Please model this.
Amino acid sequence: MKNLYFILLLLPLLATAADADYTLIIKEHRFQPAELTIPAGQKIKLLIDNQDATAEEFESHPLNREKVIAGNSKATIYIGPLKAGSYPFFGEFNEATAKGVIIVK
Model:
């Protein structure tokens, strides 16, 4: 009975953790969505799915993140917790088209 009680106490935390997952897709050398909104003050897991055949690098100086994602593969990046604001990112291998921004509210 104690185990059931403990599990019931954890359910709200598990639901919160599930809400903290976000996905960016790289397709045709563009990030989709190009604008991603996340909550302020919360650490998130960002899954980047590169659907192009060539590698791309997710780079953001304001987020202090840099990660090469091989073609047709996925990578996970953890960011935050962040203050409200805009945090631009780009694909270093295709800077002309692979651009985006994370909006924190």
User: Anything to note?
Assistant: The mean pLDDT is 89.
